[in-house]
Design a protein that fits this description.
- By secondary structure, the protein is α+β, with helices and mostly antiparallel strands.
- It has one domain.
- The protein has five helices and three strands.
- A three-stranded antiparallel sheet has the order 1-2-3.
- Helix 1 crosses helix 4, helix 3 packs antiparallel against helix 4 and helix 4 runs antiparallel to helix 5.
- The longest helix has 27 residues.
Length: 192
């Protein structure tokens, strides 16, 4: 991808809340940074693919062009919503008495995930989550786009996305400890 990339930093803020001994971690994913990575990978993939015509590679490479970027936006929106849900209960937000949502296409400058984490949550884990989620969003978009334009690569990117999700779950398990379920009073304790 040609052009001048502006340097921006993914912001991450930690705020102590002494009332309940928890912290808020805000992970911000800049749309420009996500599109830059997505476009670069799609460009290189289209450039090195075995093709019967130039038209085939353009379909792969033009991921961020007018019209096509709308699909990318929808998948980024879905990916961020998926990540928020996967990070439950750290990311849950109470719903208002009357919540209205519609499917109007919006192109935000950034995507934000707020996490309410225990007070001993590690800064290194927050940084690791930010990097994993960025890569997961890129992988989700590429898996979807290549499913349309280059099916041979779609499966690879889907597998990469699954591996990244596993790493996110592993990071949370290590950082926040294991989650134990109480035994049911109906459980006899024996395995059948």
């Amino acid at each position: 991808m040609a052009g001048g990339r502006t340097e921006t930093i993914n912001a991450m803020y930690c705020i102590n809340d002494n009332r309940d001994r928890s912290k808020t971690v805000t992970l911000t994913f800049l749309r420009e940074e996500l599109l830059y990575d997505i476009s670069n990978i799609a460009f290189v993939t289209g450039d090195v693919m075995k093709k019967e015509s130039e038209h085939e590679s353009h379909q792969v490479q033009d991921i961020a062009e007018d019209g096509n970027v709308d699909r990318v936006t929808r998948i980024l929106d879905l990916g961020v919503a998926h990540c928020r849900e996967a990070l439950f209960p750290y990311s849950k937000v109470p719903v208002c008495p009357h919540t209205y949502k519609d499917d109007t296409l919006r192109e935000p400058d950034s995507y934000v995930i707020d996490l309410r984490v225990p007070s001993d949550f590690s800064k290194t884990t927050a940084e690791y989550l930010e990097k994993l989620i960025h890569e997961l969003l890129v992988a989700w978009v590429l898996a979807d786009w290549f499913g349309i334009t280059y099916p041979e690569k779609a499966e690879w990117w889907g597998a990469k996305a699954s591996a990244l999700e596993d790493k996110i779950k592993g990071a949370l398990a290590r950082s926040c400890g294991y989650v134990y379920r109480r035994r049911s009073p109906f459980d006899s304790g024996s395995v059948r």
